[in-house]
Amino acid sequence: MHASDERTAERAVDRAFAAAPRSAFLPPDQRDEAPEDRPIGIGEGQTCSQPSTVRAMLLLLAVAPGARVLDLGSGSAWTTALLAHLVGPTGRVDGVERRHDLAAWGRDNLQTLQLPWAQVHTARADVLGWPQGAPYDRILVSATAPRLPESLLDQLADGGRMVIPVRTTMTVVDRVGAELRQWEAGQYRFVPLIVPESR
């Protein structure tokens, strides 16, 4: 990516952060902690990731306006809202959260910001991702996987990109036709991704 493209991407992410403040996606008694660059618990063993990590992941994801995006592990829907601002009303974001109460809270948060092109779905116990919305131009995974999940790779469009923590390594996967090109982008810690067992 050229320096001018990087600056454009950074400005787009900064605008998304300004439009969807983290405080709106935290429990009321923790909103004063929103500026702190650390994960903050949001209940049920889940966290709202630290802003510097989310920003780095969004820059790696390189989301374009009009893109179709899967946000796996959406939690309170902060990342879903950020992605919605990046894709704009011509795009679509499917957030997926496996905990019913968190998914419902995330839907309420999105409704407050009036982002109808973004939705939060409650995950099915036996399905990873949201196959009915595939293929996706971009997939963001906010939980650490033991390996690259085949079921998510199947939901990635040709020319698409997935950003996912694998064990402790942030991993970027680009699909070019039948080929998958993979590279690493630093060390991070996340809550574990629950991968349904193969049948």
TrEMBL record:
MF annotations from Gene Ontology: protein-L-isoaspartate (D-aspartate) O-methyltransferase activity
GO cellular component: cytoplasm
Organism taxonomic ancestry: Bacteria, Bacillati, Actinomycetota, Actinomycetes, Micrococcales
Stated name of the protein: Protein-L-isoaspartate O-methyltransferase
SUPFAM superfamilies from the UniProt entry: S-adenosyl-L-methionine-dependent methyltransferases
Coiled-coil intervals, chain numbering: none
Family per similarity comment: Belongs to the methyltransferase superfamily. L-isoaspartyl/D-aspartyl protein methyltransferase family.
Top-level taxon of the source organism: Bacteria
Known EC number: 2.1.1.77
The keyword Disulfide bond belongs to this UniProt entry's keyword annotation: no
Alphabetical list of InterPro entries matching this protein: PCMT, SAM-dependent_MTases_sf
Entry keyword set: Cytoplasm, Methyltransferase, S-adenosyl-L-methionine, Transferase
